[in-house]
Amino acid sequence: MSTIGQWQLRAAFAVRLSEMYGREVPAYTTLVDVSREVNEDVLRARGADAERLGSIGRVTAERHGAIRVGTPRELHQVARVFGALGMHPVGFYDLREAAASAVPVVSTAFRPVDAEELARNPFRVFTSLLTPADPRFFDADLRARLERFLAARELFPPELLTLADRATADRGLPAEDAERFLELAVQAFELSAEPVDRAWYRTLEKVSAVAADIGGVRSTHINHLTPRVLDIDELYRRMTDRGIEMIDTIQGPPAWKGPDVLLRQTSFRALAEPRAMRTEDGGVVSGALRVRFGEVEARGIALTRAGRALYDELLGRVDEQAAEQPAAARADLARAVWERYLPGSEEELAARGLAYFTYRLADDRPRDGLEPPTALAELVRQGWVRAEPVVYEDFLPRSAAGIFQSNLGAEGTRDYEQQGTAHDADWLSGAVGREVLDPFALYERQQDQSLARVARALGRTAPVR
């Protein structure tokens, strides 16, 4: 019997999840359609340059999802499900510190990590974990009630977890088992029809709409799905023209004349979805919850640690200028800051060690018999070696918090007199039950491996630098 490999499971899961979410949130289907139209138009206008950060096939198929869970046990279980798809936890994001609103979660992203696996299907799931132990958001009584509620629910059926473990161990599943796994996995993230306890949900909602979405229901669900687009500003205009209400801004770097870096994101506003609500007297009435939305992203070049430090510095400059000039458009301020301080070409980003690239020996390199230069920058400048940007595969905590915050009906509450509970990547690794990988190390490994191949091709024993 043929085996369905992990990347094939991952691709099939992404497609089925997208189909399911489109049925639940029709505006998401509109978002996908408009993204496809924009990508096709950009490809026609820019040709091969449009595929500099990924083939049009990859970009069109690309998705990231977002889910929220309540306990380390639930996080560990979801890691088993995503592990079956060849997805690993990468990066630690503390959204508690990144948002002005109450967003009491820490997060990681499950995704493939090898370049070949990313090329096959780069599906990612941004996964947030509630932090009931943080006294800034939950007092002792509410924490105890919340933890009891979370401990009593079961998000993932045992059959799904058993199949997931088999897929991880065997790097795939027989066709019949693969079908069952996909069926159960998609079901686990469907919106439940079970009535929501209205009083309990509202209690949590006073603290945080995100906390209520996680701990106020007895199941999890896909919170949003995100297609990738090549021109996010054009997509924003077209969605608005179709009468779909978008959030106020595009999160992340501004639109500017230089290289696309990191990640830009926006979304349509969370929709009021009908939900059955259980009242205090045990009756069931019709209600609505506004927690799910449709996000879209444009991905750029991965920055090094030095590049990220510069990015954070530039964000600080923009914040300062926005405070000093409240009437000015933030996008205009950001564009001016970027054009003053950020290198305007890929070549300069590489030369200053601000971004990651892979390198390969050029097919049309010089054939004049002369020895190639020793320095990497000269190898590139003289045409011996080609530099290709590494796509940023991860997320930005401030942007993620900004998306969450833009879709909340209220800011919630936070007790600034309390000391926050310390959580970091090591703590999250313990909760997940496997190491949360460092994204910088993954990008650096990809770059270093390419440089080692160039050195071998040039007959050198020392690395090319």
TrEMBL record:
Q: Which Gene3D superfamilies match?
A: Uncharacterised protein PF07063, DUF1338
Entry keyword Iron = yes
Record EC number: 1.13.11.93
Q: Which InterPro entries match?
A: HGLS (IPR009770), YdcJ_bac-like (IPR047869)
Protein name from the UniProt record: 2-oxoadipate dioxygenase/decarboxylase
- GO molecular function, one example? dioxygenase activity
* Pfam families found in the cross-reference section: HGLS (PF07063)
Organism from which the protein derives = Streptomyces fuscichromogenes
